[in-house]
Design a protein that fits this description.
Order of helices and strands: HEEHEEEEHEHHEEEHEEHEEEHHHHH
Largest sheet: 9 strands, mixed
CATH superfamily of the largest domain: Glutamine synthetase/guanido kinase, catalytic domain
Shape: globular
CATH architecture of the largest domain: 2-Layer Sandwich
Helix content: 25-40%
Number of strands: 15
Strand content: 15-25%
Number of domains: 2
C-alpha cells in the first residue's frame, strides 16, 4: 500500500488504525496501535519511540541482566521505531487496520545493530558488495488444535485436541476440521500482500504447512513474521489455537526449511547453476561450501531455544548430520531445483526460528565460502542419519558456546551482536536449569 492510498482510506473512514511493529529477538511482532490520523499527521515525519528493553528481555518479557544495550543501570531508555513505508499493508484479520514494519534506531539515528531486521540488513549489504542479491523462501510448519488458546493455557498446554486424528501428510481427506481455518489464513495472507502457493497436511497430528512464493530475503522475513502473528490471531478468532513450537510432543517436530539462492545484482541472472558434477557453478559451490563449513557454529541463529534441539532426531525428517546432498531430505543442506531455480535448502531451522536471524546466518555462511573458499565435501548419497560424521549441535548450550567462540560469527555480525544473542541463550538456559518439569514430577513424585 502506498502512503497516498492510506490517506484516502483514512479520510473515507475505512482505516482507523496503523499498527507500528518491530520484530523482537524471539521473532515476535511488538509495537503500538496508533490512531491513523495521528500516524499521518505526526508519525510519518517524526517516528514514534519505544522502550529499548524490547530487545533485552526473555520470552516472558522479564527484564534480565547481561545486555549492554539496555539495563537498569542505563535507565531503560527509548529507541526509535523508524518505519519502513515499503512494508505498509492491510491486516485483513484486524478490521480497520494496516501494519507498517520498522527498523530500530538509537535516538541519534544510528541503527541498533542487534535488532533482527538490522542483522539481516547487514548481511544483505555484505552480499551486495559481491554484486549479488539473495532470494529466499521459508517453509513454516505448525500444529493446529481444536482447543482455544485460553483453554489450552488453562490445561497448561497438555491434553489438547489436534485438528486431525492421524498422519495427513499430503492427504486431501481427513483434514476437513481444519480446512476452514487454513482457507482463512491463505486468503487473508493473500489480502495482506503475500503470494500464497498452497497448503498441505504434514505428519504430526494436526500439523500443516502453508507455502508462499519466494521473494528477496528481507521481504521474505517480513512476510514470515506477519504470517505467524496473523495465523495465531485468525486461529484465536475461530476458537482454535496453533503452535509453531519446534517440538510439541514426541512425534514429528515443526520445521522452517529455509530456501536461498543468489542472483546477479544488476541483471538478476541466476548464478548458482553450472557445469560442475554437483550441478552448481563455481560460485554456487563456494556458497554451499561456506554454509556447510559454518553450519555448526551458526546453529544458534537457526535453533534459538532449548526446545529447538529436541527436534533433531534420527529418522524424523529433521537433520542430525552436517552433510549436503541433491534432493536428499536426510541431509542438513539439500540441493534442490534445476537451472534458474537451483537453490540450497537449509533444513536445520524449526518453526520457532527468527527468520531475520536464520536468513542472515545462511547468507553469512555463503559469504564465508565466497571470501575464504573452504573446500566443498563430496555430496552425501544415502541415509545421512547413519553417516557417522559431524552433527548439528544437540543442545542450546552447545550451540551458544560454538557461536560465542566462532570467528566467522564475530567477523560477520560483530561482537555486539554475537554477545547479545549468546546472552539471550544463557538467560534461557539459566531459567530452564532452575525449572522443575512435569517429566521430573512423573518420574520422581511417587517412585523415588
Amino acid at each position: 500500500m502506498e502512503l497516498g492510498e492510506l490517506r484516502t482510506l483514512v479520510e473515507s473512514g475505512e482505516i482507523d488504525t496503523v499498527v507500528v511493529g518491530l520484530t523482537d529477538m524471539q521473532g515476535r511482532l511488538q509495537g503500538k496501535r496508533c490512531q491513523a490520523t495521528h500516524f499521518l499527521d505526526e508519525l510519518v515525519e517524526h517516528p514514534t519511540e519505544a522502550c529499548n528493553y524490547l530487545l533485552a528481555v526473555d520470552v516472558e518479557m522479564n527484564t534480565v541482566g547481561g545486555y549492554t544495550m539496555s539495563s537498569w543501570e542505563q535507565g531503560y531508555g527509548d529507541f526509535v521505531l523508524a518505519h519502513d513505508l515499503s512494508t505498509l499493508r492491510r491486516l485483513p484479520w484486524e478490521p480497520g487496520a494496516v501494519l507498517v514494519l520498522c527498523d530500530i534506531e538509537w535516538l541519534d539515528g544510528r541503527p541498533v545493530a542487534a535488532s533482527p531486521r538490522q542483522v539481516l540488513r547487514r548481511q544483505i549489504e555484505r552480499l551486495a558488495e559481491h554484486g549479488l542479491v539473495a532470494l529466499a523462501g521459508t517453509e513454516l510448519e505448525f500444529i493446529v488444535f481444536d482447543t482455544s488458546y485460553d483453554e489450552a493455557a488453562g490445561r497448561r498446554y497438555t491434553g489438547l485436541r489436534p485438528a486431525t486424528r492421524y498422519n495427513v501428510d499430503y492427504a486431501l481427506g481427513g483434514t476437513s476440521k481444519a480446512n476452514h481455518l487454513l482457507r482463512r489464513i491463505r486468503n487473508e495472507m493473500a489480502a495482506a500482500g503475500m503470494v500464497v502457493e498452497s497448503a498441505k497436511g504434514e505428519c504430526n497430528l494436526g500439523q500443516f504447512e502453508i507455502a508462499f512464493r519466494f521473494a528477496d530475503a528481507m521481504t521474505t522475513a517480513d512476510n514470515h513474521v506477519v504470517y505467524k502473528a496473523g495465523a495465531k490471531e485468525i486461529a484465536a478468532q475461530e476458537g482454535m489455537s496453533l503452535t509453531f513450537m519446534a517440538k510439541y510432543d514426541e512425534r514429528e517436530g515443526s520445521s522452517c526449511h529455509v530456501h536461498l539462492s543468489v542472483r546477479d545484482g544488476e541483471t538478476g541472472a541466476a548464478v548458482m547453476a553450472g557445469e560442475a558434477t554437483s550441478g552448481l557453478s563455481l560460485l554456487g559451490e563456494r556458497f554451499l561450501a561456506g554454509q556447510h563449513a559454518t553450519l555448526r557454529e551458526l546453529s544458534l541463529l537457526f535453533a534459538p531455544n532449548i526446545n529447538s534441539y529436541k527436534r533433531f532426531q534420527p529418522g524424523s525428517f529433521a537433520p542430525t548430520a552436517v552433510a549436503w546432498g541433491r534432493d536428499n531430505r536426510t541431509c542438513a543442506l539439500r540441493l534442490v531445483g534445476h537451472g534458474p531455480s537451483l537453490r540450497v535448502e537449509n533444513r536445520v531451522p524449526g518453526g520457532d526460528a527468527n527468520p531475520y536471524l536464520a536468513l542472515a546466518a545462511v547468507i553469512a555462511g555463503g559469504l564465508h565460502g565466497l571470501e575464504h573458499r573452504p573446500s566443498l565435501p563430496d555430496e552425501f548419497a544415502g541415509n545421512a542419519y547413519a553417516s557417522g560424521g559431524d552433527t548439528v549441535p544437540t543442545t542450546l548450550r552447545e550451540a551458544a558456546d560454538l557461536f560465542d567462540r566462532s570467528e566467522v560469527a564475530r567477523e560477520a555480525f560483530g561482537d555486539d551482536v554475537v554477545d547479545h544473542y549468546v546472552n539471550a541463550a544463557r538467560v534461557e538456559l539459566a531459567a530452564f536449569d532452575a525449572a522443575v518439569t512435569d517429566w521430573e514430577r512423573v518420574r520422581s513424585f511417587e517412585r523415588m
